[in-house]
Specification:
By secondary structure, this protein is an alpha+beta fold. It has 22 helices and 43 strands. It has a 7-stranded mixed β-sheet, sandwiched between helices. Strands 3, 4, 5, 6, 11 and 12 form a 6-stranded antiparallel β-sheet that branches. Helix 14 runs antiparallel to helix 18.
Length: about 850
Amino acid sequence: MRASVSWIAEQVELPAGVAPQELADALIRVGLEVERVDSAAAALSGPIVLGRVLTFADEPQRNGKTIRWCSVEVGEPQPRGIVCGAHNFAAGDLVVVSLPGAVLPGGFAISARKTYGHVSDGMICSVRELGIGDEHDGILVLPPDAGSPGDDAADALGLREAVLDIAVTPDRGYCLSVRGLAREAAIALGAPFHDVATAVTVPAADGLGYPARVLDAERCPQFSLRAVTGVDPAAPSPPWMARRLRECGMRPISLIVDVTNYVMLETGQPLHAYDRARLRGPIGVRLARAGERLTTLDGADRALDPDDLVITDDTGPIGLAGVMGGAPTEIGADTVEIVLEAANFAPTGIARAVRRHKLPSEAAKRFERGVDPRAAGVALARCAQLLVAHGGGAAAAGCTVVGSGPRPAEIALDADLPQRLAGMPIDAATAARRLAEVGCDVDADPDGGARAGGGRLHVIPPSWRPDLTDPADLVEEVVRLEGYDQIPSVMPTPPPGRGLAPGQRLRRAVSRALAGAGFTEVLSAPFVASSAHDALGLPGDDPRRFAARLANPLAETEPELRTSLLPGLLATLTRNLGRGNRDLALFEMGLVFQPRLDAPPVPRPGVAGRPSDDEVAALNAAIPDQPRHVAVALAGDFDLPGWWGAPRPGGWADAIEAARVVARAARAELVVRAGERAPWHPGRCAELVADGVVVGHAGELAPRVIAALGLPERVAAMELNLDAFAAPPPVLAPQLSAFPPVLLDVALVVADAVPSGEVLAALRAGAGELLESARLFDVYTDADRLGAGRKSLAFALRLRAPDRTLTVEEAVAARDAAVARAAQATGATLRG
């Protein structure tokens, strides 16, 4: 919201000598975000003056353009010759001239130069060139009484006016108006506030105005109309109004449109003007019907949704309520009779329409934040007043008002709550005074009687503050007016000697282990598109398809919370491949969201105090399960080429090894066995099992998934549930032996279907405590020597005793016991 200091000063008596920056600082103290204080003149320098066009000659050019060679009086003994490409002026018009040596916004320096066969001794400026608007379809032509040739243009145009640029937060919609900013300035400076409402007479709703009907009172609780007749369509907007609109970032269009925009900025109430001659029958408010269309003022033909609230007449929709008017009843160059609309619409419906049609507007910005229902009458009266004064019109008899608008509910506030929450002394009298400054009715019954009791304040918020709904909101108002800088800073005392939690230690250990194994950590957003499940080839009944949907997603294309890390991780892989990174080994650790089919509705606890244990339990029962997963993805070469040898591409074995790296970091046993699960290749997928429970999968992605995601061949991935591993206990120092080990190799023949992990587990169990380590180092297949469907697994056994050197007999006995256990468990035979 941009507003000039002089406009604000019309509604608040600023203390003498208050500089614009001091006003900005005062507004910041009461919680507003003043981003900057600027003026249009700050971007201008050098001689920029008013000039009067004495004569001009149109000169067609070979490029098809027609330029004007102008003689312009600029307050000097002789007029200057200036070349101009615009044609919207006549001899005798007052214009703005930048003389040689001037610098316009963007560093555009003006000098005398030869162009189109003439030496142009300056430039006649447009609004855009002066940096005070976006219009560039012609030069700026001023009223005849705006000044004299040679006068400083910045003074004549009011460009030295200080303008506040304020970022208004969603809960402070009333500050999207000069009226609201003046209220805040009056509170911040302790100055008298003069409401614009006192300058107009609001007529009573007599039902004699233009007819209206509201068919959806919930979405439109109040709808007001007032007609103005006899407006001169050629009447220009007064210069001061056009200047203020430009200062606020709006483009002046015509008197009728400018007045509605001006009053919206002044009061915060959006207005819309209809050409009465184009209306057919009563104006109505209802939901759109299937198949209806509307051409809005921007020229777009829009298909309406049944959730859209529309303004209608007997011909159908004539406006998208609270967002933008329609072309059928647009104000034109011949409009002399108008119907003004001031309404109150439900914010949520307006917000949905804006997002649905991708059609933000100044009106919608205010309706989304909540508009004062009592401002409608004031805005209509003010609008009619300005049109009568500057357009020669007359306010028609009668005023139509349908509905009364929402009424604020009373809030009971414990008198000591502001003090308890802020941690600073705030007594009940101070709280009541501050709330009264905001506009609240404190300790008042709905019928006007005073009451107070039990250490409580009974507060009715003002109509322009729909954001005040709870005691905590009132506390915030009290504290911000007392001053956030007055809140004492007290650092909490942390409990000593606790260090990292077990879960934190596990996550750090896993992250460091994967990084040490050659993987790079990435972090992706937890939002996914519904189509991500199809790209991964998930079956229709796969639980991972049952995702939590966001009510207000950051992007409509990604409205769901992830149930797997793979969509985001593979998207990151694709993005890096597209940027030329061909050899990638990525990992990610984060939460996934798994909704419960039997979850109850989410409760909404109050904010006056801590939720009860039952409320916390109900909240926990309603939210999705959120286990922490870890996933990896590999593409290209895992071992890069160099003097040490040729490259080695990453594959399913590296994905499985990544899972083993995670298990070792968690000091957990992980069993790898053949499995099948989307999105992995059916024949190249491993199940990851811990304590008899499947905790994840690893392997090569299925070809159809690789094709759907646009990935190169042989991309491998792994994902497992990190929460399935218990936090590892503190590391104990291993028992070291000073005696030499005995190294033995055994080769066992088993069926092809027997996993090597099962054989290794049997060897470890059979060898007993003397076995220090065992590892698989060779897999051999030969149908002629071993038989069809058989394979040979070779294991290296390392035996050692803690207190003595093992004898040959002890080592052989341990090996034979290990082989016997493997034979019993897997049917293995010792290879000869």
